[in-house]
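Summary for the funding panel

The consortium committed to producing paired sequence-structure records for every protein in the target list. Below we show the first two records in order, beginning with the earlier of the two.
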Amino acid sequence: MTIQENITGENPFGQPGFSVKSPCGRVWFVPLEQVREDYAQFLQQADGLSQSEARARVAKNEEFVPTWFYEQFDWSDVASRGQLVVQANPADIERALNFLRDNAEVSPASGAQAFGVPLA
């Protein structure tokens, strides 16, 4: 798994978050705020917290939020929480399908680049 931090400080998305490229070439941007919200929803379900309690715990554990993205987000989370930035072309889709036939599971974090997110 390769995790990169954008060292230059340039952020083409205008907000902190994660840019991920799918095997077929689609590029998604997942805002950090959406990762926080996903983590808070998990805390509500797993620990029985209220929405405000869960958000307070997320704020208290802010340094864990990037870890939550890298360890818990899969492609369905990226698609539901993120924004499609670049669509794939047909040749890239065919290449990706061939790749996926050979590889059972590919994590979105394997090629993620963090923008404005401090890595622990």
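The next record, for a separate protein in the list, is shown here:
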Amino acid sequence: MKNILLILSSLLLINCTNKSTTKNNSIIGKEFKNFNEIKQLENYSKVSDTTVYENNIEAKYGILHLKNESNNLVVFKSILRDSVQNLTFRILDTLVISNSKNSEFITIGYCQIDRNNDENLISIVEKTDSLMIQQIKHVWKVNTDSKKIERVKNLSKMNCFNEFMVE
């Protein structure tokens, strides 16, 4: 009986240690002025940085698209302003997307659901030479209420514009 209690206590201690280590490596909640200030993002380069206005005069959120050798990282961030309008950003959520095939790319803010423009959409699409993209592979939506990046499952009413053809 003592051996069983000792083993269970040891397992519990090990599990608690692993959880706290994982939590400490998270970038959720971290604040920055430049994303390179965060150690976990040092090896990334910026692809795009989109502001999310919704119905506000000033942007309150942003979507930062970063890339390194192995993957793309989409960072959903809040925009904080101090009394003299200096900007600081807080990471709310992240989405990791493995580097895609040469025939695909990530587009942010160029898709719409049921013909309503939505600056909050992140999509993996097939490259094309036409204005309208026919092959939409995956879509996520930045939800400013839940402060999360959420998967869009129904793509039937989705359409995307080729950002390289839009003037």
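Regarding this second record: DSSP finds one helix and 13 strands in the chain. The radius of gyration is 20 Å.
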